[in-house]
Every structure is written in structure tokens, then in C-alpha cells.
Amino acid sequence: MATEFLNDARKEIEGRTEDFCGELKAFYQGNGEAEQNLMEQTTQPFWQSLRLSRKRLQQRELTVDMEMQEPARLADYDGPWKDGYDYSCRRTQPVKMRRTYYRKGKKLRS
């Protein structure tokens, strides 16, 4: 029973990871719905950092396209533990991110 619960939780976490990468890309492209979703999914310091990065890109009239790849290394799981009423866990996995910057449609660098 517990093993089944853990497997379901891992699948949900992996799905959220893929969603997060897509939301992050949409956020930098100016999608308002992605902005709301990221604000709910992240901590306040991380959220403030994202907003500041996007603001700086907009001030410089830059757009960014991101491609994220997860290395073959397995993710590290910590948990689950019960924090009052809910079960929580932490999943960490290194991600390679390739950014390509554009100004007025011209590629600057990647």
C-alpha cells in the first residue's frame, strides 16, 4: 500500500517537473497564466528572482528561448514526511538549460 502511494507520488512529481519547465519558458515569453502558476509553485525569493530577470530582459528588448534537458542521472528524493496534514517530499535533479537570446528577431548568442 505504501509503495503504491510512493510510486503515484513520484509520477505526480515528475509530471509537475515537466509542467514547471514549460511554465518557465512561457513566463519568459510573457504568458500571464504561466506567471500565476509559477507564483503559486515557487518560493517567494525564487519568484522575485524570476520577475527581476524578466524585467531586465524586457528593458533591454531581449527575448529568450530556453531548452531544458535532464541528464541521465536519477533524481534524488527526500521524503515523504507528514507536515501536519499533508505528505511532503523534495525532488532534486540537475537540469541543463540552454538559452538563446534574441533582439528584434536576431539571434544574439546561445
Tag the structure with descriptive keywords.
3 helices; two-stranded antiparallel ribbon; 48% helix; 110 residues; alpha+beta; single chain; 3-stranded antiparallel β-sheet
Topology:
Elements: H1 2-28, H2 32-41, H3 44-59, E1 62-69, E2 76-83, E3 86-92, E4 96-103, E5 106-109
Antiparallel strand pairs: 1-4, 2-3, 4-5
Helix pairs in contact: 1-2
Strand content: 25-35%
* Total number of strands: 5
Rg calculated over all Cα atoms: 17 Å
State the strand order across the main sheet.
1-4-5
Global shape: elongated
Sheet with the most strands, sense and barrel status:
3 strands, antiparallel
Account of the protein in words:
There is one protein chain. With about 110 residues, this protein is α+β, with helices and mostly antiparallel strands. About 50% of the residues lie in helices and about 30% in strands. The chain is built from three helices and five strands. The strands form two sheets. It has a three-stranded antiparallel beta sheet. A two-stranded antiparallel sheet has the order 2-3. Strand 2 (about 75-85) and strand 3 (about 85-90) form a beta hairpin. It is elongated. The chain starts with a helix and ends with a strand.
Please provide a brief summary of the model.
The protein is built from three helices and five strands, in the order H-H-H-E-E-E-E-E.
